[in-house]
Amino acid sequence: MDEGKSLIDKDPVQASEKLYKAAEEVVKALAQHYGIEDVLARVNERGRWTVTDLARAVAAIADRLGKWFEEAWDTAWALHVWGFHEAKLDSDLVRRRLPEVERIVNEAQKVLGSGGRG
Predict the structure, then answer these.
(1) 13 and 83 Cβ atoms separated by less than 8 Å
(2) Among 16, 13, 26, 24, which Cα is nearest to 107's?
(3) Residue 41 CB-half CA count within 13 A
(4) Measuring CA to CA, which residue among 84, 104, 97 is closest to residue 27?
(5) pLDDT tens, position by position, 46-104
(6) Smaller CB count within 10 Å for the chain: N or C?
(7) pTM for this entry
């Protein structure tokens, strides 16, 4: 995430992807932490994550952490699609989305650092 933040003014396209990737890694880690077996079984069978797997994991995580998680994921997804693939977001538009990604990462650090199933 730090690399993404540092790139916002220099390269908003790469910043978008780095910030999205931080959120994606959180989803994968929380899916493991919470034991979201239906998703993890499909991922293990296939050997990779799909957009649908991520969306289902996000929904299950949001059921535990709150609707904000799903909304923050949607913001990260916008960075991936509109900021990276389509290169339509400038530095200001990427920066506006940063707090949502930071919240995903910060909240995950609390959950994962707690050692519990929080």
Answers:
(1) yes
(2) 26
(3) 3
(4) 104
(5) 999 999 999 999 999 999 999 999 999 999 999 999 999 999 999 999 999 999 999 99
(6) C
(7) 0.92
